């Protein structure tokens, strides 16, 4: 460069050296490019201390190298460099996308030079020598422009990110988000419409909303999709059904597959000072798919009124339909029938095959029942194996008989469980409205009573309710309550019937018999209330009471029994099934100080078919305690000699039904003789019950049974009278090895 170009510039820089402004921006990086070292020094001196990061280059190649490795915001560039021109450097900036302002400092004073520099992208052009203030102002303008560009770029980035987020949220929303124009045509809809309805959103734009809405909901949709209100008054939670497209063909047709949505919509209006009145632009809305929720609600409602296993109406729905049918009967002055059906011996199916197979059988039974009923009848399952049936429009009892007979016939055909044929029957109780009851509960109760009448008779049949069985059932309920009170009010009492050795006439033991001192009916035998106690679940507490009562009496008798006196107690199979009877008996004996050898537990033969293995375990535990075991009423049940051989039995008692048949000493009574032979063969003690005549006693004694109990010798007596008897005579046991006897 010419010397003349530099002197004035240096002079002008020195004039403003003391007027430098404070530091502005330490991040603003500048590149000073000039092959005149003095000019570079002058520029650095002018700009130094203002907070700019300054870098110098004394040649074009050095400038390009700096631009390749560093980022600059502003370049002060001399055009007339010896190796590379300033224009070439600006071309390099453009070709490499380097975003840096360029202020050209040139000694060329022609307008063409300035225009050429600006065309190459220069931010400014100053002729040498330049005014330092003008240079500083131009540098500051560049800095301000850079700051503004950076700020705008940040805003643009934020806007771009915000728009991407907005689009992401809109397109990935679980709801359909849409806008309609003022005529109800779609102007926008998000991508959810494609996944939810199977409709391409681009196809939907410009279509009327009515193409999506189910025909039955169009009137409601007209109010919602044309919503002009906004704010809190806008439509909220309106349920509509939309059509779904299931075909992917070009016709884009709709079928009748529906989803249910809940719709919120609000009107959209223009706002601004330029409008005297807001203009309605359209509707904005959000449609949420609630199909699954609706189906779940319907399922919950269905299960609330239907039996899950069979799908039949449950008790609630049955009563509702029965109430409706009763109302219709009152209005039309007609009759209806209600049936209560219970499967016979269904518990045995559950116990044998398991509850899962029992449920399978119930489903098969339901199908058979549905085949037997009429179109307008209502079949319901109340629970377990109990079903109810309403027969409206009854022309007479013959209609109910026809349905009941068809049901029984259908059930008689074998079912199949695990490829095994299963036979099952039912007991049906029938009531007729209004003659047999005025209310739902009364009808069901009377039908239940009639059904149990079938259960107690033949099973596999039907029975119409009548008042006589209701009275009997009512008396049974009263007796049950009285029996419950008897336990707490001390009305139960133990009686004892002595057992006698016919050879010696000695007292060898007693059988404990329970009596009930009923406040109105007097003294009741066990046969009048024990079956009821077993049925209503009172057998366990009554048996617990009995154990304490007999131990208390044994304690009173004390030494009069001489330690060889044996007391027999009858134990219900229910008590054995309880599982803890041996522990309960042992605890009671220890508490009262009674020897186990004084106790004999009598069980019935039915225990051998209820749960034989469980019974054997229980009886073995009793034997280990030292308690004796007797089979009561031997021969009247379903005795299995194999089980009898396995059971730890000490005594067999001949049932009084066989003893009663003995009418002659010369007669032949094979069952009695067979039982005596079994006892002798197994080495068991033998006692005959119900001996009432001398003929019976002599026959039994001659046949080998010496121990007896019955009215011939002693009637059952209270504990106090038994004490008096013991005081009069002390029992002497039969000798070991004597006929019909064993060591006591």
Number of domains: 4
Uncertain residue ranges: 1-24, 247-263, 731-744
- Quick check: average pLDDT? 82
Radius of gyration: 54 Å
Number of strands: 27
In angstroms, what separates the terminal alpha carbons?
A: 147 Å
Q: Say which CATH homologous superfamily of the largest domain is assigned.
A: EAL domain
What is the name of the CATH topology of the largest domain? Answer: TIM Barrel
Strand order of the biggest β-sheet: 18-19-21-22-23-24-25-26
Structural class comes to alpha/beta
Provide the helix percentage.
40-55%
What's the story with the biggest beta sheet? 8 strands, mixed, barrel
The number of helices is 27
Q: Can you describe what's shown?
A:
The chain is α/β, with parallel strands linked by helices and 744 residues long. The chain folds into four domains: 3-152, 3-Layer(aba) Sandwich (Rossmann fold), CATH 3.40.50; 172-297, 2-Layer Sandwich (Beta-Lactamase), CATH 3.30.450.20; 306-465, Reverse transcriptase/Diguanylate cyclase domain (Alpha-Beta Plaits); 496-514 and 538-727, TIM Barrel (Alpha-Beta Barrel), CATH 3.20.20.450. 44% of the residues lie in helices and 22% in strands. It has 27 helices and 27 strands. It has an eight-stranded mixed beta barrel, surrounded by five helices. The protein has a five-stranded parallel beta sheet with strand order 2-1-3-4-5, with helices on both faces. It has a five-stranded antiparallel beta sheet with strand order 7-6-10-9-8, with helices on both faces. A hairpin with a 2-residue loop joins strand 12 (378-383) and strand 13 (386-394). The radius of gyration is 54 Å and the shape is elongated. It starts with a helix and ends in a 16-residue tail after the last helix.
